[in-house]
Amino acid sequence: MEFEGSSKKMIATQEEMVEARVPLAYRDQCAHLLIPLNKCRQAEFYLPWKCENERHSYEKCEYELVMERMLQMQKIRENQNANSKQPVTQGQGAAIPLIPKPANA
């Protein structure tokens, strides 16, 4: 399962994530790091000072994904701003006002 626009590849398969009971919200490109982290957490009774290396690598991976999405969104916004500065013809692509005018105005 490859996500469009992401530079990271999925390493963990769906079967591995189902077997490790990874929640759907956490099944992203960093799931391969979450599986050993959760196993370590269970083995160490969720003590916060345990499993630091696994947690750090997982959080770094998630941070990189967020930064990548932010850069992609910035590029999209720049493209939209560049397109909006061009003159818009009346028929196609005319902006729809977000706040409608009252009926008797």
UniProtKB/TrEMBL annotation:
InterPro entries: NDUB7 (IPR008698). It is a peripheral membrane protein. Residues 79-92 have a biased composition (Polar residues). One of its GO terms (cellular component) is mitochondrial inner membrane. Transmembrane segments: none annotated. It comes from the Eukaryota. Keywords: Disulfide bond, Electron transport, Membrane, Mitochondrion, Mitochondrion inner membrane, Oxidoreductase, Respiratory chain, Transport, Ubiquinone. Residues 78-105 are annotated as: Disordered. GO terms for molecular function: oxidoreductase activity. It is found in: Mitochondrion inner membrane; Mitochondrion intermembrane space. It holds the Pfam family NDUF_B7. The keyword Disulfide bond applies. The keyword Electron transport applies. Accessory subunit of the mitochondrial membrane respiratory chain NADH dehydrogenase (Complex I), that is believed not to be involved in catalysis. Complex I functions in the transfer of electrons from NADH to the respiratory chain. The immediate electron acceptor for the enzyme is believed to be ubiquinone. Belongs to the complex I NDUFB7 subunit family. This is NADH dehydrogenase [ubiquinone] 1 beta subcomplex subunit 7. It comes from Medicago truncatula. The gene is 25485606.
